[in-house]
Amino acid sequence: MVQTAEQPSESGQALRAVSGHAQVHHSVRESESLTFPTTEEETRAAVAQARTVVVKVGSSSLTNSTGHLDPDRLRKLVTALAQARLMGARLLLVSSGAIAAGFGPLGFDSRPADVASQQAAASVGQGLLMEHYESAFAAYGLQAGQILLTAEDTMRPTQYRNARRTLDRMLELGVVPIVNENDALASNEIRFGDNDRLSALVTNMVRADALVLLTDVDALYTVPPSQPGSRKIPFVSDVLEAMGQVSVGGSTSGLGTGGMVTKMDAARVAAISGIPSILTSAPNAGPALMGDPVGTAFAPVKQRGSSKRLWIRFASEPRGRLVVDGGAARAISGGRASLLAAGVLAVEGDFSANDPVWIDDEAGRHLAKGLSAFDAEEIPQLLGRKSGQVRRLLGKQYAHPLVHRDNLVLV
């Protein structure tokens, strides 16, 4: 894809009104020879030039007012995606719509409230959804393939690696993966609940270069667009700051489960992961992918981290916790410090070596997440001991950090 649009002149003024000038100069990415995007023009250009792009579309963008799947809306979306794909971009589509597409054919007047009916609707609707996607992409000579994920698939390292390997291979073969939560099996106890977060996690999973979030609102606004004084925000340089300065609401369509809150959170995950993103309406999908000034562009706020560290931070589910003293808490919070046994006061939970754990201070506040180097049952004998003491008493195989800095991320 190529950049085709000029930056709108009012973007700088809108940025100052919402998120100030919290822009930081970053070094050049050696592997890509690109500067870290900090301006609206650079951010939109990064999306337009992205080699791998994740696009997320919500239920309300694919269905009509009665809750049925709208084939015309779906075909228009596929047309925009196919054009980008045929120009060389590798595309993954995270698509909601299975439950919304299925409850109409099953005779429900609206989205069912009980889990069993939702799962039944999803089992019917997912097939309808994929039938339309496969037909629409085939019109452009493109093959689509279905991937259904559960929250467990992103939390557990083995499932995570399997999903990543499958998606990578599909992209290598030129297939457009259609990703959705496995609503037919997911329960309310452990699920994404919306595909916004799933899209951000998939973006990290495949190390995509950009994320495009499509909804029924054309951009982020200072307050919901229906309220007086609402102003469109074309660019956000620091989504962490912006999240505290705009008023957003939940889903109002009755067809989906998310809202602007979950989309802002997805943009936050992308920004912290070093990934630019665009938030706009589904009809603007093509212009957004081409770098045109539509919707809201979110700049990254950090350089890209390793796949392992991104998984630890955003997808892993801690199995226990290590409670640290004040000195260890300060060292951990300072960044790039390993957690040594001498600074650990207590261990809780039942976990094995390489399982994720919380690192908490004495007040119970989460400081970091990391991968434990030991089984939970091995750690009590190490608590409070310096490395030299551990080596003399237990042997050199125990004289290493409980959590190495390369396997630790601050939260």
TrEMBL record:
Keywords: Amino-acid biosynthesis, ATP-binding, Cytoplasm, Kinase, Nucleotide-binding, Proline biosynthesis, Transferase. One of its GO terms (molecular function) is ATP binding. Residues 320-403 form the PUA domain. It catalyses: L-glutamate + ATP = L-glutamyl 5-phosphate + ADP. Pathway: Amino-acid biosynthesis; L-proline biosynthesis; L-glutamate 5-semialdehyde from L-glutamate: step 1/2. It is an enzyme of class 2 (transferase). Its EC number is 2.7.2.11. It comes from the Bacteria. Substrate binds at residues 96, 183, 195. One of its GO terms (biological process) is L-proline biosynthetic process. ATP binds at residues 56, 215-216, 257-263. One of its GO terms (cellular component) is cytosol. Residues 1-39 are annotated as: Disordered. InterPro entries: AceGlu_kinase-like_sf, Asp/Glu/Uridylate_kinase, G5K_ProB, Glu/AcGlu_kinase, Glu_5kinase, Glu_5kinase/COase_Synthase, Glutamate_5-kinase_CS, PUA. Residues 1-12 have a biased composition (Polar residues). Transmembrane segments: none annotated. Belongs to the glutamate 5-kinase family. Catalyzes the transfer of a phosphate group to glutamate to form L-glutamate 5-phosphate. This is Glutamate 5-kinase. The lineage of its organism: Bacteria, Bacillati, Actinomycetota, Actinomycetes, Bifidobacteriales.
